[in-house]
Amino acid sequence: MSIPRRDFLKLSALTSMAVASPFLVPQSVFGANETILVGVVGLGGRGSSSHVPAFFTLPNVKVVALADPDKPRMAAVAKWMQEKNYSHKVDHYEDFRAMYDRDDVHAVGIATMNYWHGLNTIWACQAGKHVLCEKPLSHFIWEGRQMVNAARKYHRIVQHGTQLRSLGAVRDAVVWIRAGNLGKIKLVTAYANKPRTPIGNRKEPLPLPEGLNYDLWCGPAQDGPVYRDRLQYDCSFTWNMGDGESLNQGVHQIDVARWVLGDIEEMPQRVISLGGRFLFNDQGDVPNTQIIYYDYPDVPILYEVHNLRAAKNSNDVLKFRGFSQDGVVVDCEGGWVGIDHTNRCIAYDKDNKEIRSWNGGGNNFANFIDAVRAGNRDLLDADILKGQISTRIGHTGNISYRLGRKAVISVQTKAIEDYPPMVEMHKRYLDHLAAHGIDPSETILGEWLTCDTANECFVNNDEANRLVKGYYRSPYLVEEIA
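User: That's the sequence. What structure does it adopt?
Assistant: Structure tokens below.
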């Protein structure tokens, strides 16, 4: 995990030289009328409702293979495809690797849960496939770096599923902000006001569905009995298989924040997080209420998670300056800009008067296919390296939280008193807890961690760096890739 700084700077210089000219994948250019054959891996909500239909609607692209350890779920998607009058055969694979063994599959969409992104992307690259991998890129920081290394070593085009990069409205808003139209940027606040419900707390293990290869479904994660009410998706609210809302949703908003600030490549100087999993009393162990301070020297980035409703006995969703659900607010000297999950991008002056808005969509899947067809990764809106840089930021906040302990309010405020934006965010946090009648002393106060960008880890913290490297269940091991 350690790279001498002198070597890191040499490597950075070489990388800059390499990306200065178009990157062409050897012997992988497709003519405009040639058909690109695609496989989809993981057929849950994102795989079945986004990947399959998105690839299906693109000209001269065919989905010819499906892979999922849950055979009944895979069969249901195949049936849907038949009902949509697919005019070609679609093969099914319980084991992803059997799909990758096919020489005629050119690209794959990976829509598994987070913990399977790493190995699937690496295996696909090693097998010569181009990849569109869902967010967040990785389950661990180190794993994400191996994914990047695999893409580069095997000359594969790999797009990350931060699809806001492909939306014209967001792109135009970012360009406008960076041009200084509202003056200097002072603060960026990202948030996920996304209502969730408890995932269950069963006394007896959940019966596993027939037709599920449970060992393969668990893969690199631990494979113990399930005490949730649902097997699929809700595993993302456990550290074993997921990364909490601050990465599940947050990587989109952190990516936009990083983009607004000039696509900064560094990790934050320091990071701290606090929060808790309140009221749910379930098998989840990731926070459902969380705030994170990413300490960048010029402009800090804040992140807020609210999976509870606005208040006790309320169905309202918490809003941030009138924007709901998930978004980014960029505060500048002359006003502010709100960018939310609905592609709503609006600029306001200092008096909160609307002065500008943006429209315009885009297609992350089409952009990926265009880059594959041209054999040019420079055409990607969200190259895997961008995904790694944005994803690792979110991981730093979660690692701080995971090293934390319960703390009373006075201890919380003492830890953050030198950081005014964090102090203000903490006040909002306490108000939210009060609206639900939650004792703030149940808060987990994370550690302040100092980041080391060159080595993608933390300074003098072995416990934090163990979470950087991650944990894998044999034989589903991620190997280091030079």
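The first strand starts at residue 36 and ends at 41.
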